[in-house]
Task: inverse folding
C-alpha cells in the first residue's frame, strides 16, 4: 500500500531544511567575517603604530628628513620583519645595480679589490679584457691614490666608491707595483664578467668552473663544453664550489646538454601548485662527469650538483652543501624599486628538498691543509681512471 506525505508535513520539512541551511551559512559566514575582522584589526594596529612613530619623529627629530630614504627604510623594515634571510626590498638604485649584476656585465675598470693592512687597496683579481689588464695591472698591486686623494686618508669604502662611474668616464689612479708608484688614467668601460673558466687537465680530463649563473653564463658554459669535447675530453669535472646560485633560466641552459629528456626540477608554491623550472631535451652528454662542491655551494649551484647526482650522470665530491632550496621572485614597482621575495621551495624531480639540509657528496673530502686542494686532486684522480 502506497504511503503519501501530507502537504503540511512537506512544507514543514522544507521549512526545516531552509532553517538548517540558513544556520550553517550564517555560521560559516560569521567565521569568515570574524577572521577578516581580526585581519583588518591587526593591519590597523600596524598602520597606527607607524603613524604614531611618524608623528613623534616629525615633531621631535632635530635633523631633516629625506622622504625618499624614509620610504625606502620603512619598506625595507617591512620585508626584514618577515625574518627571511633571502627576501629583501630594493630601492630603485639598488635594483638597477642588481640587474647589472645579473646581466653578467659591469661598468668599471676590471679589478676585484680588498682592504690591505697598510691602509691602501690591494688588487686581488684582474678581469680578462678589462682596462686594468690592458694597462698591465697585476694582482697584488696596490691602489695608492684615487683622483689625487690618498687612500689611507679617504678610507677603503670612499675610495672604492670613487672608482664607480658611467661608461666612457675617466678616473686617475696611482698604483704601486713592486714598490714603484705609477700614475694611470683609466676610461671606464662595459666588461663581460667571466663566470665560467675551463682547461684541459692531464689524461684528457676537462675542467669547467662555474662561479655563478648569470645571463651570459650559458654562452660561456656551452663554448667551454664544446671546446673540451672537441679536443677529446674523456671526462668532465664541473666545479661549483663557492657558487652561490643565480638565475634559474641560466641554470637550465647549462644543465640541458648534460641530462636526458624530461623534467629535471620543480618548484612547490604556497598554494600547493607545482611548476617545472628546469627541463632538458633529448640531447645529453655521454661522458663520465664529476662535480666539486663545498659548504658554500648554494641555491642554483646546489641544484646543478643535485640534478647531475640524482639522474646518475655525475659523482659528487667535496663537502655537504649550504642547503638553500628555496626560490625567490623579483617584482618591480612603478617607482623602479623592487621586492625579492621567497615564493617557493625547489627540488629535483627525483629527490626530496635539500633546503636547510644540503646535499651530501658521494665522496666526502675536506680541504684540511692550507694551500692543498684535496677535493680537486680527488676529482682528477677519479676522472683520470
Result:
Amino acid at each position: 500500500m502506497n504511503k503519501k506525505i501530507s502537504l503540511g508535513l512537506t512544507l514543514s520539512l522544507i521549512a526545516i531544511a531552509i532553517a538548517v541551511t540558513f544556520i550553517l551559512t550564517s555560521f560559516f559566514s560569521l567565521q569568515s567575517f570574524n577572521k577578516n575582522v581580526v585581519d583588518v584589526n591587526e593591519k590597523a594596529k600596524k598602520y597606527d603604530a607607524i603613524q604614531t612613530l611618524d608623528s613623534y619623529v616629525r615633531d621631535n627629530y632635530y635633523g631633516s628628513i629625506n622622504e625618499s630614504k624614509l620610504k625606502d627604510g620603512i619598506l625595507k623594515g617591512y620585508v626584514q620583519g618577515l625574518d627571511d634571510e633571502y627576501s629583501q626590498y630594493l630601492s630603485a638604485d639598488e635594483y638597477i645595480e642588481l640587474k647589472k649584476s645579473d646581466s653578467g656585465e659591469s661598468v668599471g675598470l676590471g679589478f676585484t679589490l680588498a682592504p690591505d693592512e697598510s691602509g691602501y687597496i690591494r688588487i686581488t683579481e684582474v678581469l680578462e679584457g678589462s682596462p686594468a689588464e690592458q694597462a698591465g695591472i697585476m694582482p697584488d698591486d696596490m691602489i695608492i691614490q684615487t683622483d689625487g686623494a690618498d687612500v689611507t686618508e679617504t678610507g677603503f669604502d670612499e675610495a672604492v666608491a670613487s672608482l664607480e662611474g658611467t661608461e666612457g668616464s675617466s678616473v686617475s689612479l696611482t698604483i704601486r707595483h713592486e714598490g714603484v708608484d705609477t700614475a694611470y688614467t683609466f676610461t671606464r668601460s662595459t666588461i663581460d664578467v667571466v663566470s665560467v673558466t675551463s682547461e684541459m687537465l692531464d689524461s684528457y680530463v676537462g675542467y669547467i668552473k662555474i662561479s655563478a649563473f648569470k645571463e651570459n653564463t650559458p654562452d660561456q658554459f656551452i663554448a667551454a663544453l664544446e671546446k673540451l669535447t672537441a679536443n677529446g675530453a674523456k671526462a668532465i669535472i664541473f666545479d661549483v664550489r663557492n657558487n652561490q646560485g643565480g638565475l634559474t633560466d641560466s641554470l637550465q641552459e647549462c644543465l640541458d646538454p648534460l641530462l636526458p629528456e624530461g623534467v629535471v626540477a620543480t618548484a612547490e608554491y604556497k598554494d600547493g601548485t607545482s611548476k617545472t623550472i628546469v627541463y632538458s631535451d633529448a640531447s645529453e652528454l655521454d661522458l663520465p662527469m664529476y662535480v666539486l662542491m663545498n659548504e658554500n655551494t648554494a641555491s642554483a649551484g646546489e641544484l646543478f650538483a643535485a640534478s647531475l647526482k640524482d639522474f646518475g650522470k655525475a659523482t659528487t665530491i667535496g663537502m655537504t652543501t649550504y642547503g638553500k632550496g628555496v626560490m625567490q621572485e623579483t617584482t618591480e614597482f612603478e617607482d623602479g624599486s623592487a621586492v625579492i621575495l621567497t615564493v617557493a621551495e625547489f627540488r629535483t624531480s627525483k629527490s626530496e628538498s635539500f633546503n636547510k639540509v644540503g646535499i651530501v657528496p658521494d665522496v666526502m673530502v675536506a680541504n684540511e691543509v692550507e694551500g692543498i686542494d684535496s677535493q680537486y686532486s680527488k676529482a682528477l684522480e677519479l676522472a683520470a681512471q
Observations:
- The chain is about 35% helix and 30% strand.
- The chain has a mean pLDDT of 89.
- The longest strand covers residues 338-348.
